[in-house]
Amino acid sequence: MDQPLMGLDFGGTTIKGGVIRASGGPPVCMDSAPFDEAAPAHEIYRRAAELARRLEDKAGLGPIQGLGVGCAGLFNRATGEVLASANMKNLVGTSLSEGVSKALGGRPVVIENDANVAAYGEQWLGAGLHERDLVLLTLGTGVGGGIVLDDHLFIGPGGSAGEVGHMVIVQRPGGSEYDAPYFPELQCSCGSYGCLERLVSATAAMRRAKAAGVTPNLPELCRLGREQDGKERALLHQIGRDLGAGLATLVTLFDVNVFAIGGGFGAALDVLKPGVMEAMAERRYGTLEPTVVEATLGSDAGWIGAARLSGRQP
């Protein structure tokens, strides 16, 4: 049966959602509701439930049995409790899945990290269409990611798999022949040193541009990198190589064949890609030649992946 699936994606300012059929294809309908970070949790859950009911009515396909929700932060998957979230502090200490479920009259709700469901959406109907394996990396303030292997979301036993931004790319000095000079700006907020997000995020690109004496304005930096063979292109080539080093590690670990690059800085993939492919060719293990493409679903990837996840619950 081609059942309808519903997903919501809790963002910093908006709850976005939609209905899609289990067979895929274009969304049946989409809608959104404001997310007010000053509102109490029960009010947020009420608004999410209202959005879900509105989507169900718009779809006109009858009752939709379950709901998938993507949200940023850390949470207990068994209880649905939000343990930490930078943008949703009003939800911390409450059960998101239970709160939305109660507001929907007991309908089952499954929750997952927003980056993971975005990867699931891209693999299903976006950049990974017709592929069973995909890794999504989002280049923004930091570097987020999600991993899909053999058509299933891979989260690991602790639920923290896919934190690709915290792969160590540059070693802290300590005597090894592989060590690079110590640069304090490579100290990561996670406590480690030389993480991927300290090298290739939008924030890192602006910092590196300033240090190189070129414009830290990303759109302008990328424009100059495309149009001129100068310092801007050289910097973007090196950032691409650093990204390629991270992707090569993921190829070695997972033998994955498709990488989707999203986020605001992901739009610069065309100018980063020569460095990406160069470093991957030098570093990857095995004979597979992965495809590196720009993510295609944009902000819809999260709710689409969450909807699919809801349809795969026992």
Automatic annotation (TrEMBL):
Alphabetical keyword list: Kinase, Transferase
Its EC number is: 2.7.1.2
Record's superkingdom?
Bacteria
> Pfam families per the record?
ROK (PF00480)
InterPro entries listed in its UniProt record: ATPase_NBD (IPR043129), ROK (IPR000600), ROK_cs (IPR049874)
Q: Would the keyword Cell inner membrane turn up in this protein's UniProt record? A: no
In alphabetical order, the GO MF annotations are: glucokinase activity
Family to which this protein belongs: Belongs to the ROK (NagC/XylR) family.
Q: What PANTHER family does the entry give?
A: BIFUNCTIONAL UDP-N-ACETYLGLUCOSAMINE 2-EPIMERASE_N-ACETYLMANNOSAMINE KINASE, ROK (REPRESSOR, ORF, KINASE) FAMILY
Provide the protein name: Glucokinase
